[in-house]
Write a structure and sequence with these properties.
Length: about 400
């Protein structure tokens, strides 16, 4: 049986980034995925916030920018009553756009191929079925490869197998709380009118506290979808697919833009484990990263940036564990500490923003104010360029200044 320093299960953004960081630090990494890349992942395809910085640290930003994508320079919001407010992020001094829209089939493949180049070994088509333990220590993973049960062993196991994977379930970290999960549907449309260089988040009244999104792709193509917290969806008996199609066909703000558009894919649905719930993401011989660790932003639904951050900080903690030859829960807890020092405040802030978005009148007022106030536009624009500035949006003093503006 082959032994590795680290096994990374899952080659999405969290697993590929962990693999790149660790392999570049000299660790012998086995990267496993059940899919054969390129593969799709149901997503809005918005790559923004902290993603761009970490793609730079990984050394893959140029490759992403060479792949098919659209550069994004801001966000357009609309309120339940239909006020539309575009907010520009401005052009950052380094010339790199603050965000992209890139189909996951393309984006994940760029990351995965870069990971494959540096990993000791990569296996596609491996379907993991069982985390292997000795006592309470994780020592490897079993699964099916070419129809045969196969096992691999390691010093540290990284569960990067996403929302529906086995890692969170078998390691007692599954987020099944309907307050902290979002449901979403997504598809692609061709020939959508009126798109520019901004992602679009529309707070239609039928789906609060979630939103309807239009994310522009090349050639008038758009990633279109709608998402909402599961508890609210059930309480309000919302059929997401029906609401989305109804908005596209009949909503006064959107129907003209979709008048000549054609849906080019099936409508797919998926669950988003939100980072408003802290799940346990480390233990003896293992860490969990990305969606397996329930890290998606509870307000925006973005998970890629936090998945990449978890790759960065789990790698740092794993490298320190190898230096000390200590793979205990206590040693690996450094990952959780570093990660939440970076993203904890933002997750808490954005959970509060999600709760506020339940109130139509408040959203109407805030988006109206944003349309008129340079103070609000500036704060949102700052937060788009630097996610650390999110805190400012929920600072009581700032809110007071907005209310009296
Ligand atoms: C509808 C929707 C819209 C979204 N929109 C956005 C957005 O616009 N921007 C954004 O930042 N985030 C968005 N997200 C969140 C984002 O998609 C996730 O946060 C992100 O994909 C997490 O990356 P990951 O690497 O942790 O997991 P994944 O990308 O899910 O990767 C997991 C990998 O593990 C593999 N795997 C799973 N099980 C096994 C197994 N048993 N054996 C072997 N391999 C396995 C899978 O094949 C997959 O390649 C959205 C999510 C949804 C559902």
């Amino acid at each position: 049986m082959e032994e590795f320093d680290v096994i990374v299960l899952g080659g999405g953004p969290s697993g590929s980034s962990t693999t790149i960081f660790l392999s570049k630090a000299g660790k012998k990494v086995l990267l496993l995925d059940r899919a054969k890349f390129p593969r799709d992942k149901t997503c809005g395809d918005g790559i923004s916030g902290r993603s761009v910085g970490i793609l730079g640290e990984l050394g893959v930003l140029d490759d992403v920018r060479k792949a098919e994508h659209m550069d994004m320079f801001g966000v357009t919001f609309s309120s339940p009553k239909g006020t539309v407010v575009p907010i520009s992020s401005g052009k950052p001094a380094n010339g790199v756009p603050p965000g992209f829209v890139c189909r996951r089939e393309v984006f994940d493949n760029v990351l995965f191929q870069n990971a494959k180049k540096v990993a000791a070994k990569t296996i596609e088509g491996f379907i993991a079925t069982q985390i292997v333990k000795e006592g309470d220590k994780v020592v490897g993973v079993k699964g099916m490869l070419n129809g045969k049960e196969t096992e691999f062993r390691c010093k540290v196991f990284v569960g990067a197998d996403g929302a529906g994977g086995i890692s969170a379930r078998q390691l007692g970290a599954l987020n099944e709380d309907e307050i902290h999960q979002c449901a979403a549907v997504r598809c692609y449309y061709d020939n959508v009118e009126g798109m520019g260089d901004k992602i679009e988040l529309h707070f239609i009244k039928e789906a609060l506290p979630g939103y309807f999104w239009i994310f522009p792709l090349p050639n008038k193509r758009a990633n279109v979808g709608i998402g909402i917290v599961v508890k609210d969806m059930k309480a309000k008996k919302i059929n997401l697919q029906k609401v989305m199609l109804d908005v596209i066909e009949n909503h006064p703000v959107f129907k003209q833009r979709f008048a000549n558009a054609k849906r080019s894919t099936d409508i797919k649905s998926w669950l988003l484990p939100l980072g408003s719930l802290r799940t346990k993401n480390y233990g003896n011989g293992y860490v969990l990263v990305g969606d397996a660790s329930s890290l998606i932003d509870p307000f925006s639904g973005e998970g890629i940036g936090n998945a990449l951050s978890s790759g960065k900080y789990s790698s740092r903690a794993i490298i320190a564990a190898f230096e000390a030859n200590d793979f205990s829960e206590q040693k690996l807890s450094a990952y959780n500490k570093m990660l939440f020092e970076e993203i904890g405040d933002e997750l808490d802030t954005n959970f509060r923003m999600q709760k506020m978005a339940n109130h139509q009148w408040l959203l109407n007022m805030m988006i109206d104010k944003a349309g008129r106030s340079d103070l609000v536009k500036g704060a949102i624009s700052d937060a788009l360029i630097n996610p650390d500035n999110h805190k400012k949006l929920m600072d009581p003093l700032f809110i007071l200044r907005v209310l009296v503006a």
